[in-house]
From TrEMBL:
Protein name (record): MPN domain-containing protein
Residue ranges constituting the MPN domain according to the UniProt record: 5-136
Record InterPro entries: EMC8/9, MPN
PANTHER family associated with the record: ER MEMBRANE PROTEIN COMPLEX, ER MEMBRANE PROTEIN COMPLEX SUBUNIT 8_9 HOMOLOG
GO cellular component terms listed in the entry, alphabetical order: EMC complex
Origin species: Amanita muscaria (strain Koide BX008)
Entry similarity comment: Belongs to the EMC8/EMC9 family.
Phylogenetic classification of the source organism: Eukaryota, Fungi, Dikarya, Basidiomycota, Agaricomycotina
Amino acid sequence: MNSPVTVCNQAYLKIFFHAAKHPHRSVNGVLIGKLIDNTVVIEDAIPLLHHWTSLSPMMEIGLDLAGQYAESVKLQIVGYYQACERLHDTALAPVGERVAEKIRATFDKAIAFVINGETFGTGQPALIPYIPVGSSSWGPHPESGSAFSASSLFQLASPDIPSRALKLVQTDHIHQAFGDFDDHLEDVTIDWLRNAACLPVDV
């Protein structure tokens, strides 16, 4: 996977809010976007789970609903993200590999990101990219140590979005209103597909 990848502000913020709301749990979700001039543009993130992070019926239902939503806004699922329960764990979990493989079956430039717990609260980009390294296994991208640097294939739409995300969490506590599919199952009024109320107007 050598195509450039751009992570838009809305997608980064939602990934950050999801992990910030559940700092001591594994969380996961999918990334939706499109291919523009061979660049994978990740426009949004849809948070799935923080309870049932295995490949369960709830995961399958969430993935199906996320796919339907993506189609409704003329996008598609292009990737997967996860945060691990332990701060120093940056491995893509087996369930993550399986979900990423499922996504790759319909989008051959699929990407996965694991949240880097060590840089998460520093205002630096906190995403480690994973790509396919075999028929069904995934590993860190060769640029994983320098992802989102000036010369990297991986770029943020706004370089300052990690520091903005950190401020929105630390100062405004905006992540507390963020909801994933697990939350929606407990309270159907939670708009987990959009989470529009959690996004600043200037995003």
